[in-house]
Amino acid sequence: MEGNIIKNEYISLMNELIQGKELAKQLCNHVVSSSPSSSLETNEFLIDKILSSYEKVLNMLNLVSNVEDTKTNSGNMMMDESPKSEVMDNNEFRHKDVSKKRKNIPRWTEQVNIFSRTGLEGSLDDGYSWRKYGQKDILGAKFPRGYYRCTYRNVQGCLATKHVQRSDEDPTIIEVTYRGRHTCTQAKHLKKASKVKIGLEENQLHNDPKNEPQQEKMVQFQPLEANTENLDTKEDIFSWFCFPSSSNNGSENEDNNNILSNTMMENHLMERFSDSFISQSTSESSLFCLPQCHLNNTGFGQHMQTLESDIIEIVCESNSVTNSPALDLDMLLEKGDFDTDFPFNFSEYFSS
DNA sequence: GCCATTTGACCTTG
DNA sequence: CAAGGTCAAATGGC
């Protein structure tokens, strides 16, 4: 029974790999021949298919490894003679499993100022939608800490969380600690919204509110600095700049799945290798890797690439350590057309 | 009725 | 064991 499942998985893996190889061959022929028939769209389509193929394979491997982990854990649970393990239900088991990984999840802190010298800049809204799931009085802190998790946690299994706390010394400064990366499709919407914005600027068109990313609470902020915890390198943060590949030809759903699998796998790898693998790759040059295949080959794509490079430089210069690219990218892209949704509701974010 | 927030209890971590 | 973090029932708004 179990052997058949493994065999089927193996066959699926092989099929995907073979398909990927064939597609790569086709792409190679297209590139080498550079005939009129090998349009840019065709090449992009092939690249997307190849990437999709390999993502599927990696996802399968990921699932298999997760199953193995679960088996190992349940095995350990069986060995546990404590009374609690005997009554531990599925929920408790799941909770324990999640919590054990908690410390391995990458975490970084940002300090943002509600007001800047010039007025209002930036945005506490980092482009993602969050749901508050708790609030806690912190020892020695005047203000309670609010706990937020991704709105799509249940729907898409996105495990990104953050907690927000107002500074004791300066109430206009807020510390936002992010934990985990988004595996939901919000990242894609962010990307699309950014593209739309740039496109609008180029075409001198008016803003269409429908093109704005989903925003729960628009609060204007200026990031001050960011600290990293559990991050041996800046790679965790800068990898946000590596836009997941998106399929222009594939369906929306497939597109979403691609991003989902990308980020989910990165999270998984982060958890697995945060202690060993990541700490070894400290090369700064890798921080600025923006794979060509992740960008459109159109003129606009090149524009995006240039823009992103500029943004990275700006972020590096303005912050001694690093900053949340999600916030910065959004903020910088917003600078062209401020929509100052002010006044905002303080009590909503820092209710006590 | 659905969804987000609040809040006390519970769990994990150091 | 204390403090931080999360869960989940209760509550409120739309």
Strand order, largest beta sheet: 2-3-4-5-1-6
Order of helical and strand elements: HHHHEEEHEEHEHHHHHH
Category by helix and strand content: alpha+beta
Tell me how many strands there are.
Answer: 6
Low-pLDDT segments: 65-100, 116-123, 191-221, 231-260, 269-352
- Helix tally equals 12
Give the N-to-C terminal Cα separation.
56 Å
Q: Roughly what fraction of the amino acids lie in strands?
A: 5-15%
Compose a concise summary of this entry.
The chain is 50% helix and 12% strand. It has helices at 2-33, 40-79, 83-87, 90-102, 153-156, 186-203, 235-238, 252-273, 277-280, 299-318, 325-334, 346-349, and strands at residues 107-113, 130-136, 145-150, 161-166, 173-179, 222-229.
Task: Outline the fold blueprint.
Layout lengths: L1 H32 L6 H40 L3 H5 L2 H13 L4 E7 L16 E7 L8 E6 L2 H4 L4 E6 L6 E7 L6 H18 L18 E8 L5 H4 L13 H22 L3 H4 L18 H20 L6 H10 L11 H4 L3
Antiparallel strand pairs: 1-5, 1-6, 2-3, 3-4, 4-5
Helix pairs in contact: 1-2, 2-8, 10-11
The protein binds a DNA duplex (14 and 14 nucleotides) through helix 4, strand 2 and strand 3.
Describe this structure in words.
It holds the Pfam family WRKY. Belongs to the WRKY group III family. With 352 residues, the chain is of the alpha+beta class. The chain is 50% helix and 12% strand. Strand 2 (130-136) and strand 3 form a beta hairpin. It contains twelve helices and six strands. It binds a DNA duplex (14 and 14 nucleotides) through helix 4, strand 2 and strand 3.
